[in-house]
Amino acid sequence: MEPDLEVVQIRPGESFAAWSHGYPYRTVRWHFHPEYELHLVVATTGRYFVGDYIGEFTPGNLVLTGPNLPHNWVSDIPRDTSVPLRCRIIQFSEEFISGAIRAFPELTALAPVLESSRRGVLFSEETSRQLEPLMEEMMQAQGVRRVELFMLIAGLLSRAQGSRMLASASYLPDPSGYMSAGINKALAYIRENLTRPFNEADLAAIAGQSTSAFSRAFRQHTGMSLVQYVKRLRINLACQILMSDEQASITSICYEVGYNNLSNFNRQFLAEKGMTPSRFRRLLLDNINTAKAANGGFRDEHTNHHQTYRERACAPKRESILL
Question: Edge-to-edge strand order for the sheet containing 46-50?
């Protein structure tokens, strides 16, 4: 069975995604993504699948999967019951970790673990026990504290004893082959053409499905309709532009992110963020000015307050958008 593509959207102003979810959850399925994933089970028991490996998991199961390695955790719980918190997850890109290693050569000690993760790495109970409080704090951490925690976690993983690889040496992920699956082709097209006009019929043709079949499959994979999904991505892009370009007009941003009607853009922005684009920008500027006044204009304090606002105001209503 071909795995599904999971699109990981890391928040503006953050280097990696840190989030948690319960069970059942819509991303619990056979899937892959280009990012590394550190996955810690908090509750439930069941089976997990990493490449061609199948094993049993219990709370404390800690696994690092590498880029494009298919994986899934399936909890063994009675039908129609749910668990509010099943696992905690950190996801980061190859670009991010490569840049971090260039900036901090000491992180080279993590390189063997990253290489092993291409087959999936299961860490020992002791490593999991040491890492668990760091993962828990990471879920709510902001600013520099996120980086501090990431470095502590990286240090623990680089020194871990008793870990082992999961998938066989002969197992080779095939992301190009996975992307031949219809729904994954459509998701890739959306990502590459987000600001251009397209409709459900266009994507259904790309996926090789009827429009009605594609609509059902898309909702099953993403938990939302195509309109809702595209709206969320476009509004998040608008937030990034509002924060990075003070000279850009609201009208120009409207067209830049793929809307062709200003009133509709304002209405969709309000529905997604709870305020209009102009108010979003005004509050951002007010926050910057307040931070300057409160901290004597020091640039480092200004940056910290600005960053805190960006993390809070521009974040999607869920921790990250995952498919």
Answer: 4-5, 31-32, 71-75, 46-50, 53-57
Under 8 Å between Cβ of 38 and 87: no
Provide the residue-wise pLDDT of the chain in tens; the chain has 323 residues: 678 888 787 877 889 999 999 988 876 788 899 999 999 999 999 999 999 898 999 999 999 999 999 999 999 998 888 999 999 999 999 999 999 999 999 999 999 999 999 999 999 999 999 999 999 999 999 999 999 999 999 999 999 999 999 998 878 776 665 655 677 788 888 888 988 889 999 999 988 889 988 888 788 767 788 998 899 889 888 887 887 777 889 999 999 999 999 999 999 999 988 889 998 888 777 765 665 565 554 444 334 433 433 333 344 333 332 32
Three-class secondary structure of residue 42 per DSSP? coil
Q: Which domains does the chain have, with CATH numbers?
A: 4-165 (2.60.120.10), 181-223 (1.10.10), 227-323 (1.10.10)
Spatial separation of the C-alpha atoms in residues 36 and 16, rounded to whole Å: 10
Alpha-carbon distance 323 to 307, whole Å? 27
Kindly state the DSSP code that residue 79 receives in the 8-state scheme: T
Q: Which two tokens stand for residue 109?
A: 């000690």
Cα–Cα distance, 44 to 59 (Å, whole number) = 6
Pairing of strands 53-57, 83-92: unpaired
Other C-beta atoms lying within 10 Å of the C-beta of residue 301: 14
Distance CA 309, CA 286 (A): 11
| Long-range contacts (CB closer than 8 Å, 24 or more residues apart) made by 278-285 | 278/250, 280/239, 280/242, 280/313, 281/242, 281/246, 281/250, 283/309, 283/313, 284/242, 284/243, 284/309, 284/310, 284/313, 285/246
Q: Is 202 exposed, middle or buried (0-12, 13-18, 19+ CB in 10 A)?
A: middle
Contact 121, 63 (CB under 8 A): yes
